[in-house]
Amino acid sequence: MDYTILIGGAAGQGIETVVLLLEKTIKRSGYHVFTYKNYMSMVRGGHNFMQVRFSDKPVTTYSTKVDMIFAMTAETVDFHMGNLKEGGLVVLDEEYHRDRDFMHLPLQKIAKEIGNQKVVPTIGFGAIGKYFGLDPEVAMDTLEEAFKDKVLQLNIEAFKKGYELTQTEIELEKKRDDKIIINGNQALALGAIAAGVKYYCGYPMTPSTSVMSYISAKSKEMGIVVDQIEDEVGALNMALGASYAGTRAMTGSSGGGFSLMTEALSLSGILEQPVVVVNAQRPGPATGLSTRTEQADLRFVIHAGHGEFPKMVIALRNPEDAFYQTARAFNLAEKYQIPVIIMTEEYLTDYMMTMNPFDFSKVEIVRNVEANYEGTSERYKRYEYTETGVSPRILPGKKEGVEVLVDSHEHNEYGNIDESIETRNSMMKKRMQKLEGLKKELMEPDQIGAENPEILLVGFGATHGALLDAVTRLNDDGLSVGALVYGDIWPFPTDMINKLGRDAKKIITVEQNMTGQLESLILEKTRLEISHRILKYDGRAINGDEIISNLKSILEG
Q1: How many angstroms from the chain centroid is the CA of residue 95?
Q2: Are 90 and 185 contained in the same domain?
């Protein structure tokens, strides 16, 4: 079984309330849930919608076609009737009566009788819950968690009234509930906490803000300092200061804010100061579409910062990946004393998905700090030349009489300014030598589908779920299709794509940008030829249905 409910209306009408209650109740009934958001940047008005897809099997993407439309405005019906499956149901208030075979319910009327118009979403939750046969006891537990005191009593009454409005048409049995439901930014924040982050700073910018909000909510419990800074220029500089003092530090923003960080990112490179930076992508240029999704910052992030210095870039693929890769990013930043940039996307930051609980025991905190440094007869060499390019790092103020000098100018091994040709050449080689060790740490892309596919799809980041869905269905239809989805993306791993791409009849990139930035990276680092592109750049996330449709068009010529 696989069902999708679309809830649409204007901002401020309580769409998120309906969805929150539904997704938690369905999840607690033992089903897999995937919730997709599509919303405008205005506080009130406009047309927003969300989709709750659920199944007895894992769900990794949203669906183009829906089984039910719950319309909180008349225009929701106009917008989405084309997405309704044959035999699907439209539910809307009797106030918006249409001469169609819709389910018209007295939602506004009941809310007035209860005495609070804000309970309309909960009335709708009751009606939908009854239709799908959700256990009212499980639903009541969800209500008790979401509301308190007098508001709780109003919503319990609203739920009961809504539950009486419909009949059960689809019987969902209650199963064992052993999953969590989480979005990408929550998982990312948990990964940072598991890795021992003790300082997070940033300036609010959609869609990165919820990382700071989540860590802030846990800050007292976990002993983390969270600062809201005046701008992104200050944010990365303050994170570097905290890192210099010995704290695991992190900052984050979206494209516009990340642009302001690039000078300090270069500072991190010459200071050889570990730091983790999040870029939660949204469509540009400039403000662009502030609540939509895109993958157009790939080339920018890889080359961010003036001058040449080693960095690592990791593109997060799903919430599970976000947790473990973020924790890993802190270890790699410290091991090689470099900035590690985590790329995510609005789509991944916002969608909710059920999955197995994270295994915190798999997260090992590895600090590359010389805690037992005893000093020598000469001064401490913060930038000592080594075979790996990584110098012994001690923390300032930890050893009496030992100075830890750092400088944004080119410097010698001690950290003093030095403009000599010999020092410049030696320091550049020392810093860039770290890439040799970093390349050995790289994780090859996730392989999906056929082992040696005739058709190879290649993507990165949050296209993972859509590619998994599409490849599974295409192979079930008898095609030989596989996919590689990149997480570690700079330095660029080439073993798997060279191996599979050599024998594939077609190599097709799947990206959420207009210029094929991953394609250009593949062409730069391999000798493979890309036969076709599947590109989407309208600000809405690509799904499995769209990948299948595009691929069939390619195959049909």
Answers
A1: 39
A2: no
